[in-house]
Design goal:
A: 658 residues; alpha+beta; 5-stranded mixed β-sheet; 22 helices; 14 strands; B: alpha+beta
Chain lengths: 658, 543
């Protein structure tokens, strides 16, 4: 098969390159494209240029029109924590078993067909190029697969038209061409289907087979009692209740809830009858100073007849009264007004003015899971495999993805602003209170509470507002499930992470974690290597003993935290972050959504990360020296400013990190 | 002429609104020949507020019964509002500002009066003479020489006194070649790429005309360019016009190099937007950015409609083409459009940034701007007379230099470690190109600057910028010297709107300066640790 047949877009781009002909088809040395000689090994700095650097200097890869970054971009898919030996072995996790291997042709949308050998285990699909001039490696956890289709039939003519087309949940498709003889396609199809969709075959999800060991146990990161204690709870107005210990009050809520002190457990039971799926209003977050709160729940069961429930009305008033200064409770209904009205037809609805005198209700116009799913589908259409070129910005606009991001952020800003101003406590709900509600409460908390902007704080936020409060990860992601067209699937959590990324762009020094941290979370949202995102709610996780039988994603991250740190993080207490949610200040997360396309990929990650790591190390060193100096200083009772090596005026700033 | 003739009312009570972020300022408004001052009352704590009148791009006045409102739209895209007591006073002040901000005379402009403390006249003007760059070229090759054929600016009024040309071509031949090129801009060296031994050359279009004239000396000159690289070297002529436009230019006396006349050279057409359409694109973009009322869901479509990012993409990819021709194909490159003073310079300067690590240093970049824009005869005075707001538009304005700065910003975004300077320098250059107390961007050519004695009677921007107190504002704290070429991704998905410039006055939540200040702290803390250790830091490349 000829490597010179490029897809038409490639040919076009080559023409754009001047039509001057030969150029390295597939590039080599890629890293180093932006690195100086001194930047890498600190020990080797300044001196003579290493031969490696000069070699790279002579063959840097043309970025603007090369099709050569495949290696690089594919290597980046590698999952962390796996020791990849670039010899003949295939990476394997403890507990991972090899099922089969096969020679295939990988139809790379960027570089054309590449002959390779694919290895399938019960965890991953791994492909290594068999061609000498390509070091291509694909390493894809089977959990990422949403759909496997056969392409071409026995009568198919044409090169590479017979094989498998695999749709992934992470914005890409993989195509493999196979030989038509000997059931080779059927075998591969059957094996992939079996291990990518274990639920349909009564097989366990890989997380239950994974025997990885980490020196940190991620399951201990979140302890609800400790987290509420950090918030200063319980206090005079709020108590911790175990009424849901056995998930009897609400099977999709966590066991431990924080409710108004003045509401008895019986009150809670009565309120539960009036809230969709018994998801009663409970506390998410309390402001440390003004004591206003963010409370979350599901919609009230008002229905067509406009039912009322005295207990619910009273309960909301009790919430309002936990803070004496407040005359009105603010209710944010995340839905568009019309949807909320329409929900009455199915028994739901919203709090009317008549029934809830001391509350003000606002709609936040955020659309439902189906709209979000379709929107992301449109994003994929314009970025994979080919990026829309002629009308990029208007195509992007017509996906409405950024507009949805804007609405979610705007809603969260309103929640945060209300609470931070101390004018009102806030109650947030949508329909069931596990999608848009989780987005709004968690983003508002991220804006309000700098603790959640640290690595562990963010893990706690996700663990609390998303996992424990029953965001239906299993349904939204479809772990191990073959039903790719399931209407329950929706990128709600991805949208949340995107919002976090937008915030981190606008406040480059406010978050302890970096972009890789967010991408790693998203990768393992699908991978099924960890138990963190499995199942729909805490009760199901408890039944399956997930914490005993699987490893937590936070184990992986926390045992290797440096990789995920933002070197520019400066810890600030009590600073409320209000991102600008105007379209002008939002951008498409190219490094995530278009990361598979070698032409688009920014050259940032590697060298910049390297420099960041350097900075981090040096900063730590500096702080250590400072501490030594301070120790010495305090021993001598000398004024630090008189010492020539004493801390600079900026010191207090840096010092606050620790 | 006396400025006082133009000042109808010298002072008035006024309130100044500076956008949503800054608090309004009240005080006495004073008008001088070059400035608008607002002196707050004695009880106020804030300092004197000062605006260079030259930086006012458009002025709009509205009067009420006993006061007037003046809206000043500045060349740096700021919008200011003055509420002035007294109808008569406000009208007078508006008219005075109008008259004073649009004075044509160079030698009565502010740079000729600006005498800041701590700077000496004449400083920094000697930083980047053509001789200096020639020294570097001479170390790398001896195929080129410094010619003073243009000593008295008679051969080419828009070239500097000294230019670098092939050693084998004598001054007489240069003069004859100059007569064959528009505006006398015969091919001269722009950049010597030492690793490949190839060169980047620039000129204006040949005056072939409808009769397809030829010029033996011009052909000889380009032959010498190839021979100077190596025997058998090829060349590409990057014409920044479409082939259609280049053909049409023959009708008005211009044209392109005929294939047969220039063996070894191959012509490529890469049309770049220039002049009026580019200015309109800029105006539309600024309008879109400032229009906060528009329904937000059409922002991206509107951004696309401005085409500004498409121009950025075209400029960068043409520069990549030129750079690639040298670095990859080992070919010499000649760039020209029509006059050779706009898109030509855009391409040659960007190609150098991509290829040449020295041009990415603080000093090297200033040298590049000085050599490839100012001395190369980009007509700053004509191009930057007005910015995006002015209604009085002559046809000479074009934001070519701004487009260059935007492209550099895109490079810096994609290679955050490789440029020694930061966004601050680019913003400063944008501001100063349009209105400045320094003389650097005055006039349209070296000849005019000589006539006006700019070098002896005004301060150089470089001496202003290179003061230690500016360091943090202008430098990139993450810079690490990178000896390689930096090939940007020019796909639209990789390009961004330069928010720091176009949305500068519609602030993001955390001004980038605040973020960078924190980064600086971390980095300088780091340097302190480094200094206290006996390690050798990587030496910075010297020019």
């Amino acid at each position: 098969m000829s490597r010179d047949t490029h897809p038409p877009t490639d040919a076009r781009r080559r023409a754009a390159g001047g039509g001057q002909g030969r150029r390295g088809r597939r590039g080599r040395a890629l890293e180093g494209a932006e690195r100086g000689p001194g930047a890498k090994q600190p020990g080797n700095g300044g001196g003579a240029r290493s031969p490696r650097v000069s070699r790279m200097a002579s063959a840097p890869t043309s970025k603007y029109n090369s099709h050569s970054l495949e290696n690089e971009s594919v290597k980046r898919t590698s999952r962390d924590g796996v020791n990849r030996d670039l010899s003949e072995t295939v990476p394997r996790l403890p507990g991972e078993t090899r099922i089969t291997d096969k020679e295939v042709i990988y139809i790379c949308p960027f570089n054309g067909p590449i002959k390779g050998r694919v290895y399938i285990t019960n965890y991953r699909l791994y492909l290594r190029s068999l061609e000498t001039d390509s070091a291509l490696i694909l390493d894809v956890p089977l959990g990422v697969i949403s759909r496997i289709e056969k392409m071409g039939g026995a009568t198919s003519r044409g090169e590479n038209s017979y094989g498998l087309d695999i749709t992934c949940k992470d914005m890409r498709n993989l195509r493999f061409a196979l030989k038509q003889e000997g059931h080779s396609r059927r075998d591969m199809f059957d094996i992939l289907t079996r291990y990518a969709f274990p639920l349909a075959h009564s097989l366990p999800i890989f997380a239950f087979l994974n025997e990885e060991k980490f020196n940190v146990d991620g399951w201990t990161v979140y302890n609800p009692v400790e987290e509420y204690r950090r918030q200063g709870l319980p206090n005079h107005h709020w108590r911790i209740t175990f009424i849901n210990k056995c998930y009897e009050l609400c099977d999709t809520y966590p066991a431990l809830l924080v409710v108004p002190y003045r509401a008895s457990d019986d009150d809670l039971r009565r309120v539960a009858t009036f809230r969709s799926r018994n998801r009663i209003p409970v506390l998410s977050w309390i402001h440390p100073e003004n004591k206003t709160v963010i409370v979350r729940c599901s919609q009230p069961l008002v229905g067509m007849s406009g039912k009322r429930n005295k207990d619910d009305e009273k309960y909301l008033d009790v919430i309002r009264e936990t803070n004496r200064q407040i005359s009105k409770l603010t209710i944010y209904d995340a839905r568009p007004n019309v949807n909320a009205v329409a929900n009455k037809a199915t028994g739901g609805g919203y709090e009317s003015d008549d029934a809830y005198h001391n509350a003000e209700l606002f709609f936040l116009d955020i659309h439902n899971i189906h709209v979000m799913r379709e929107s992301l589908k449109k994003v994929k259409d314009i970025v994979y495999p080919n990026v829309e070129e002629s009308h990029w910005l208007s195509s992007l606009e017509s996906t409405h993805w950024l507009e949805h991001i804007k609405l979610v952020l705007t809603g969260a800003i309103q929640v945060a602003d209300k609470v931070s101003s101390g004018k009102s406590s806030v109650l947030v709900h949508c329909s069931d209170g596990w999608d848009r509600t989780a987005q709004l409460t968690s983003l508002a908390m991220l804006m309000l509470d700098s603790f959640y902007r640290s690595i562990e704080g963010f893990e706690i936020l996700v663990q609390k507002e998303w996992i424990s409060f029953g965001h239906k990860f299993a349904s939204r992601i479809g772990h191990g499930d073959k039903n790719h067209a399931d209407a329950d699937r929706s990128p709600i959590f991805l949208q949340f992470i995107d919002c976090v990324w937008q915030m981190s762009k606008q406040f480059p020094t406010a978050f302890e974690f970096n972009e890789r941290f967010l991408i790693t979370i998203l990768d393992h949202l699908y991978s099924c290597r960890f138990g963190t995102f499995l199942y729909n709610c805490e009760s199901a996780r408890e039944r399956q003993k997930v914490t005993e039988r699987t490893v937590s994603l936070w184990s992986l991250i926390n045992s290797n935290k440096d990789k995920f740190k933002n070197p520019f993080y400066t810890k600030e207490i009590n600073r409320v972050l209000y991102p600008v949610a105007s379209m002008r200040h939002l951008e498409l997360w190219v490094n995530y959504y278009i990361r598979w396309n070698p032409r688009i990929k920014q050259q940032q990650p590697n060298p910049v990360e390297q420099r960041y790591v350097e900075l981090l190390a040096l900063r730590d060193e500096y702080i250590q020296r400072l501490e030594e100096l301070q120790l010495a200083g305090s021993a001598k009772l000398a004024e630090p400013s008189t010492s020539p090596a004493g801390p600079s005026p900026m010191m207090p700033h840096v010092h606050t990190h620790f | 002429m006396e400025f006082s003739d133009l000042i109808r009312t010298g002072r008035a009570q006024a309130k100044l609104l500076r956008g949503p972020e800054a608090p309004p300022l009240r005080g006495t408004l004073c008008l001088t020949g070059h400035h608008l001052l607002l002196s707050p009352g004695p009880q106020a704590t804030s300092e004197l507020w000062l605006l260079l009148l030259r930086s006012v791009d458009s002025i709009e006045k509205r009067v009420a019964s006993d006061s007037g409102t003046i809206t000043l739209r500045c060349k740096d895209l700021r919008v200011l509002q003055l509420e002035i007591e007294g109808v008569e006073a406000s009208l007078d002040i508006a008219r005075s500002i109008e008259a004073l901000s649009s004075l044509e005379s160079v030698i009565t402009s502010f740079p000729f009066f600006y005498r800041p403390k701590g700077l000496r006249l004449g400083d920094a003007w000697h930083f980047h003479p053509p001789e200096r760059y020639y020294k570097r070229v001479a170390r790398e090759t001896n195929a080129w020489r410094l010619s003073e054929v243009n000593e008295d600016f008679s051969v080419c009024p828009s070239y500097p006194r000294a230019v670098i040309v092939p050693r084998s071509v004598d001054d007489g031949a240069l003069a004859r070649s100059a007569r064959f090129r528009q505006g006398g801009r015969f091919p001269v060296l722009s950049y010597h790429h030492a690793p490949s031994g190839t060169v980047l050359v620039r000129s204006s279009q040949p005056l072939t005309g409808p009769q397809k004239r030829r010029c033996a000396e011009d052909e000889e000159l380009l032959r010498a360019v190839l021979l100077g690289a190596r025997p058998g070297a090829r060349g590409f002529i990057v014409d920044t016009r479409s082939s259609q436009a280049a053909k049409q230019a023959r009708m008005t006396g211009g044209g392109t190099e005929a294939k047969a006349a220039y063996p070894g050279w191959k012509r490529l057409h890469r049309p770049l937007e220039r002049g009026q359409p580019l200015q309109e694109s800029f105006v539309r973009l600024v309008e879109a950015c400032g229009d906060l009322q528009q329904s937000t869901d059409s922002w991206l479509r509107r951004l696309e409609g401005c085409c500004w990012l498409a121009h950025v993409k075209e400029a960068l990819s043409t520069a990549c083409l030129a750079a690639q021709g040298m670095e990859r194909e080992g070919a010499c490159i000649l760039v020209h459009g029509a006059e050779g003073t706009d898109s030509t310079l855009l391409v040659t300067s960007l190609a150098q940034l991509i290829l040449d690590p020295l041009s990415r240093t603080m000093a090297g970049f200033q040298e590049l701007v000085e050599r490839e824009w100012i001395q190369a005869g980009h007509p700053f005075q004509l191009r930057c007379a007005h910015s995006a707001f002015s209604h009085a538009r002559s046809k000479h304005e074009a934001p070519t230099f701004l487009l260059f700065l935007d492209c550099v910003w895109q490079l810096g975004r994609q290679f955050p470690l490789s440029l020694e300077f930061g966004e601050g320098l680019l913003l400063a250059l944008f501001e100063h190109a349009y209105a400045s107390p320094f003389g650097t961007f005055l006039c349209n050519s070296e000849k005019e600057r000589c006539l006006c004695e700019v070098r002896t009677r005004t301060h150089s921007l470089w001496s202003g910028l290179n003061q230690p107190k500016e360091r943090r504002k202008l430098r990139n704290p993450l810079y690490a010297p990178n000896p390689l070429a930096i090939w940007p991704s020019v796909e639209l998905q990789s390009l961004r709107l330069w928010q720091g410039l176009f949305l500068r006055w519609i602030r993001p939540p955390e001004p980038s300066e605040v973020a960078w200040e924190k980064v600086w702290q971390i980095v300088t803390d780091k340097e302190k640790t480094k200094l206290s250790q006996p390690t050798v830091s990587a030496s910075e490349p010297q020019l």
